[in-house]
Amino acid sequence: MDYGATTPVDPRVLKAMKPYFLSKYGNSMSLHSPGREAREALENSREIVASLMNAENKELIFTGSATESNNLALKGIAFANKKKGKHIIISSIEHHCVLNSAEWLKKRGFEVTYLPVDEYGLIDLKELENSIRKDTILVSIIHGNNEMGTIQDIEEIGKICHDKGVYFHTDAAQSFGKIPIDVNRMNIDLMTVNAHKMYGPKGVGALFVSNGTEIEPILHGGGHEFGLRSSTTNVPGIVGFAKAVEIQKKEMNSDAKKQIRFGDRMIKEISEIPDSRLNGHPTKRLPNNVNFSFSYIEGESLIMQLDMKGIAASTGSACSTDDLEPSHVLLAMGLKHEEAHGSLRLTLGKYNTKEDVDYVLVVLPKVVKKLREISPFKGKWS
What is the average pLDDT value for the chain, to the nearest integer? Predict the structure, then answer.
């Protein structure tokens, strides 16, 4: 129940990758036959991944992770466009790699505006429009939130940015391969994606960079990836990414329908637990995401108790972040510290079964009840 953290590699993906570790191991920059073979695999993979987002091949830059892609998007746009301005807008519920990139840029003279969200995790489009200034160079808003699953109106956000002449970036690491994305229709200039959230290998990501976008590389070397990401190309990983995309093209709709069916049932039954609250938008959410807060208990204890029962899940509080602070996402949505500390994220995947869901719905209420019985917080919080 923690597919949002990572996914197992699909056996078909592993099979596609294997030759590129053993017999087709050439460097894609080499001129000899093994190098040309690797180059051909690289470019075929680029075409497959680009096709799932309706991008041109040359608009897709392979990276080592979504974190690297987000860093490249923010820092690359900032330094390439600093003569125009030094103002960047992001939401208050971005992934830490976007938040920390923005903080890094602030220390180097850039100004950052953090857009608030409502109780469902949605930004206010009017507030976004009013926040864009003459010196604004980039807006970065996450597509499907990694914690509570809310999906932003990316198409409208992109339109506002384009009307104002500002680049628009979205972090789609959690949504790519789960729901349809068309970078042209949705007015996206830059988009972050990765492989390991969609049954591909870890260590492979990509950044969509639309034609004509002014961006500086943050890695310098041999000029790989159209000069934007120097580093010996991870051909096996990229081939695996492409195979995962190929599979999701065929199976995304059926996977989503199953996950929505399972998720709706979980939301309905978990909502019956006293003093529980669904986090995120009730309908505008990723098909596989279920996030709840439970009063009077802490998320760390809940995760540990579920783990002892064979259920892997996550929480937005200390145990998942090595930080004593609760989830910044849930706090931004207006939850109190104690409510955010008692959060549980369940994220479904294609290998989950009805029996898995049945088991969680039997175990979870019992665990919550047990923890509340021994909780020192009930009187304090009530």
Answer: 94
Tokens 């592993």 map to which residue?
A: 14
Under a CB-based contact definition with an 8 Å cutoff, are residues 286 and 174 in contact? yes
Domain limits at 299?
Answer: 252-373
Calculate mean pLDDT across residues 164-173: 98
Listed residue (370, 76, 334, 52) closest to 209, CA to CA:
76
- Tell me if residue 62 falls in helix, strand or coil: strand
Q: What is the pTM of this model?
A: 0.94
Q: Pick the last residue of a domain from 193, 219, 247.
A: 247
Same domain, 120 and 157: yes
The whole-angstrom separation of Cα 112 and Cα 304 is: 37
Active-site choice (5, 319, 331, 363): 319
CB distance 292 to 278 below 8 Å:
yes
Q: What is residue 343's three-state secondary structure?
A: strand
Tell me what pLDDT residue 377 has. Answer: 66
Residues 265 and 223 in one domain: no
Chain position carrying tokens 């949002």:
4
Give how many domains the chain has, as a whole number: 2
- Is 319 one of the annotated active-site residues of the chain? yes
Tens digit of each residue's pLDDT (9 = 90 or more) over 301-323: 999 999 999 999 999 643 345 55
Q: How confident is the model at residue 29 (pLDDT cuts 50, 70, 90)?
A: confident
Dihedral sign computed on CA atoms, order 28, 17, 53, 194? negative
Paired strand residues for 193: 206
Chosen domain end from 198, 217, 247? 247
On whether both 230 and 260 belong to a single domain, the answer is no
Strand order in the sheet with 190-194: 60-63, 205-209, 190-194, 167-171, 136-140, 87-91, 111-115
- In a domain? residue 382: no
pLDDT of residue 319: 39
1 domain-assigned? no
Write phi, then psi, for 56 (nearest 5 degrees): -80, 150
Task: Determine the distance from the C-alpha atom of residue 189 to the mean position of all C-alpha atoms in its chain, rounded to a whole number.
Answer: 17
